[in-house]
Each structure stands twice: as structure tokens, then as C-alpha cells.
Amino acid sequence: MTAIQTVRLDRSWWTRHGGTATVWSLRALLVVALLVVWELTAERWFDITFTSRPSDIWTRLVQWHQDGTLWSNTWITVQEVVYGFLLGAAAGALTGFALASARALYQVLDPFIMALYAIPKVALAPLFIVWFGIGMSMKVLLAAATVFFLVFLNTAAGVREVDRGLIDAVRLMGGGRRDILVKVVVPSSMTGLLTGLKVAIPYALIGAVIGELVASNRGLGYLINDAAAQFDTAGVFATLVVLSVIAALLNLLVGMLDRRASRWKPLGEER
């Protein structure tokens, strides 16, 4: 009997991570170049009253960090975004799986769902204030309503596009409805679900911040309102920087989940 020999491939760090390192280096270089150009041209080409400049934005961030304004308001918005995202994503995923699996019911409800989806979510803010007040729950539910439809539609599309051949194969092997759901439908529709989660992240931020802009005395949306009322452009940009960082971190978490969930796919199908 011939013994099987294992050959170890000694690859350098650059071979394994060179592509990723190059992309991140170019991203950092682009950001630095834009900031330098902005800083150098702020007073020469633009009125800093309207555009501010990176040094002033950094000064405002440091000031807010020292007096606690930054962290107290950021924590409020982070809670609203995370709770709203989780609530909307869970409701959207479960509803998407349930309705897409019941094709007749999905066809009946589809026009009504699309009509609700078409409503601008900012138009719901006054109604949510009447229903839920101006506390955190209103912002959480507004963010959840924004996230729900994106996750629902992508999840439903993923379920409806499951390969019928795989379902028939499981049935031929004696599998029941539970086997089809767990071993075919859920794994195959994960791409649609994760796409919905990625797309919904900035919209969770939008929903929470819209709620804060409409009615709030704390949170990053409140900071934007307060800074704009004082014509503090640096404060507005500083708040936008914080919102961008929150969105990037949430995208990173969903990307890690996407990679773990895509391990079962062939290499050519991984995104």
C-alpha cells in the first residue's frame, strides 16, 4: 500500500497577503493625499467658513474628546444603530424566509410590501414621534424600519433563486422539508441575506440620524444640528467622520461574517 505524502507549501507573507496590503496602502495614500490637498487649498481656493479644513476638524474632535461630548453622543447613536440594525435585520430575514417559501402568499403580498418600501423613511419620522415619543425607541424603530425592507427583499430573492435541482436531489435521497430547509435553502440563500445586511448598514445609520435630526437632544444627529445652528462647519464634518468610522466598523463585522458563511462555497464562487 502506497503511503500518501504531504507536501508543505512555504509561502512568504507577501505571497499570502501582498494583494490585501497593496490595496490598503493605496487606500491610505489616497486619503492622505486628499487631506493634504484639502488642507493646503482650503483658504486659497475655498472659504473655510463653508468647507472648514482637516486641521480644524481634528481640533474639534480633540476638544469633544476632552470634554466628553464626543463619546457620550456617539454611544447614544451607536446603541440606536446597533439595536435598530439587529431588530430590522432579524425581522427582515425571518419574514423573507417565511414569505419566499410560501410562493402564493408572497405573490399576494408583494405589491403591498413594495408600496411600503417606496415610502421615504424620513416621512415616517413625524409619525413615529407621535407613536413612540422622542426617546431612543423612536430612533431604534426608524432605523429598524429602514433596514427591514432591504434585508427582507434580498433574503426573499435569495430563497426564490435556490437551485431546484438541489432540492430535487435532497428529495430523491429521502430528505424531508426540514432537510431541504436546513441543508439547501438556508445555505443557498445566505448570499442574498449577507448582501442585504451589507447594504442595510448605512441605512441603519441614516434612519437613526434622521430620527435625531428631527427630534433629539443627544446623539450624533443632535451634534450635527447644534453645530450647523452655530455655523460650525468643522463640527459638522467632525460628526460625519465619526459616522463614517461607525459605518466602516459595522461593514467590517458583516464582512467577517460573510467570509465565515461562504467557506462552504467553491473557491470560484466566493466573493
Automatic annotation (TrEMBL):
Keywords: Cell membrane, Membrane, Transmembrane, Transmembrane helix, Transport
Record has Membrane as a keyword: yes
Record-annotated ABC transmembrane type-1 domain positions: 70-258
Transmembrane feature ranges: 21-38, 81-100, 112-134, 140-159, 180-206, 236-257
InterPro entries in the cross-refs: MetI-like (IPR000515), MetI-like_sf (IPR035906)
Compartments where found: Cell membrane
Pfam entry (one): BPD_transp_1
Major subcellular location class: membrane
Membrane topology classification: Multi-pass membrane protein
PANTHER family for the chain: ABC TRANSPORTER PERMEASE PROTEIN HI_0355-RELATED (PTHR30151:SF20), ALKANE SULFONATE ABC TRANSPORTER-RELATED, MEMBRANE SUBUNIT (PTHR30151)
Family: Belongs to the binding-protein-dependent transport system permease family.
Protein name as annotated: ABC transporter permease
Species whose genome carries this gene: Nonomuraea maheshkhaliensis
